[in-house]
Design goal:
Layout: E1 7-13, H1 17-28, E2 34-41, H2 48-58, E3 63-67, H3 73-82, E4 88-91, E5 97-98, H4 102-106, E6 115-124, E7 130-133, E8 158-160, H5 161-167, H6 178-188, E9 192-204, H7 208-211, H8 213-227, H9 233-254
Parallel strand pairs: 1-2, 1-4, 2-3, 6-9
Antiparallel strand pairs: 4-8, 5-9, 6-7, 6-8
Helix pairs in contact: 1-2, 6-8, 8-9
Length: 255
């Protein structure tokens, strides 16, 4: 680890006992690259606190739990970020987990400056199917246009501290699309995106963003209208998303 820059992992959790140990184990296995795992517990009433205290002892302080209420996921991200010491920072929700070779794939890119490292994501759906997403490389001329979303899957991102210094932290106004808003602001501030063509993490469908799809689109629309000059295309993008979503739900009910 002495020859590698420190990577800090931040995990916000609230009543995540069912999946938390899988997350903790995946980060602990990566301790050759990761120097600390800051876990922000927002006031869990299940066994999350006991799990975190046990892992803090088990790992000799590598797992650093903090128990304090926050105002939501964005606030949890930010509180965790303030407690990190690493040159690079990764954020991983408590129901997701890193692939076994994730940071081995990341290592060759850790000398980059002012960049967001991102890779592919193995998406585990509620019906048991698995899909690989996130194989698009960043194109500054194409991505983050009003009708498009973003090239980076946020759970795969390893972000340089210098990026946060330039862009700021996550906007606590957003409860779902704080990742889109942050990455859009990074793009507009001249931060580059470096694609790693490997699976970095496993993502569980069914979390906050999956359960609040329409709210997430509304927040993305708000961010687009705030930062992009085009006032028409983002509204068209949102309307088309909502139209297709409504049609799918109608067909499902008909079945």
């Amino acid at each position: 680890m002495a020859d590698l820059p420190c990577i800090s992992v931040v995990t916000p959790v609230l009543n995540g006992a069912a999946t938390l140990e899988r997350n903790l184990e995946s980060v602990w296995r990566s301790r050759h690259w990761v120097c600390e795992h800051v876990v922000q517990d927002a006031g869990s009433t299940d066994d999350s606190r006991a799990i975190l205290e046990r892992w803090q002892d088990k790992t000799g302080g590598f797992v650093k739990p903090v128990f304090e209420e926050d105002s939501g996921i964005s606030d949890g991200f930010n509180r965790g970020l303030h407690r990190t010491t690493g040159k690079w920072i990764a954020i991983q929700n408590s129901d997701d987990w890193y692939d076994d070779e994730a940071f081995q794939h990341v290592e060759p890119y850790l000398d980059e400056r002012l960049t967001i490292l991102h890779g592919m994501l193995r998406q585990h759906r509620l019906d048991g199917t698995v899909r690989i997403v996130g194989n698009r490389s960043y194109d500054s001329e194409r991505h983050f246009k009003p009708l498009l979303t973003m090239p980076a899957q946020h759970p795969t991102c390893i972000i340089g501290r210098d990026v946060y210094d330039r862009v700021g932290h996550y906007n606590t106004y957003y409860k779902i699309a704080m990742d889109y808003d942050f990455l859009l602001r990074a793009h507009l501030r001249g931060v580059t995106f470096t694609h790693i063509p490997e699976v970095i993490c496993n993502f569980s469908r069914g979390g906050m963003s999956s359960a609040n799809t329409v709210q997430g689109w509304r927040e993305m629309l708000d961010s687009k209208l705030t930062f992009l000059d085009d006032r028409i295309s983002p509204r068209f993008w949102y309307a088309s998303k909502l139209f297709r979503y409504t049609l799918r739900n109608l067909f499902r009910r008909a079945d």
